Amino acid sequence: MKMFNTFFDCLNVRSLWDGRNTRKENMCPYTSAEDPRLTFLNVEISNYLNDWNQQVTERPGIYSKAQRASMLLSHQTVSGVKISSKSISECVRTLLDQGASYVLTHCFNQDPLEQHFGHYRHKSGHNNNPSVYDVQNTLTTLRAVNSQALPPKRGNVRRGVVDIDSVDISKLPRRKLF
Question: Would you place residue 120 in the very low, low, confident or very high pLDDT band (cuts 50, 70, 90)?
Fold first, then answer.
């Protein structure tokens, strides 16, 4: 539990003050390429997962393959954790070497990207393999809809100001076919 708590703390650095305010060193911003947390992410978490796998494999007793598998994380999860931890540690090192004064790892996520491609799948009738034509049409639709969106009256999110009087709803001329 401690290992994964440290892992998540290292990946959830949200602000310059969270580490100080919560008294958790692992939640302080990364300011040096020699930070020991980067070694933890790059080496120690991978070794821990490999040791875990080895201990379950060599565990004495008569266990079925399914029982041993239930003692481990799935191979997809293990691969994902290893890839994520090594990628993030290298990105942090690169950013700090390129002149960034600090790095907040909470900003490293793919949620906006997944949401963006989720729109493509949704507009294509839940098609997991949309064609280039489908993506082009969906992109055009999303741009048109977003440009006409009105800002919310209440809430904590504001969009660009839209002048309702300047919205043109006239029909566009059709393209002439060859």
Answer: confident
Helix (H, G, I), strand (E, B) or coil at 30: strand
* pLDDT tens-digit series, residues 39-56: 999 899 999 999 999 999
- Name the percent of the chain in helix, strand, coil, to the closest 5: 60, 0, 40
Neighbours of 60 (CB within 10 A): 5
Token duo for residue 95: 């950013």
What are the beta bridge partners of residue 30?
103
- Quote the pTM value: 0.62
Select from 162, 145, 144 the least CA-distant residue to 153.
162
Q: The tokens 């309702």 sit on which residue?
A: 164
Three-class SS state of 26: helix
CA angle, 129 as apex, 125 and 135 as ends, to 5°?
A: 70
d(CA 60, CA 6): 30
Quick check: 111 and 128 in contact, CB under 8 A? no
Asked if residues 95 and 103 have their Cβ atoms less than 8 Å apart, the reply is: yes
DSSP letter at 105?
Answer: G
CA triple 72-73-79, angle to 5 deg: 130
The first and second tokens of residue 96, run together, are: 């700090």
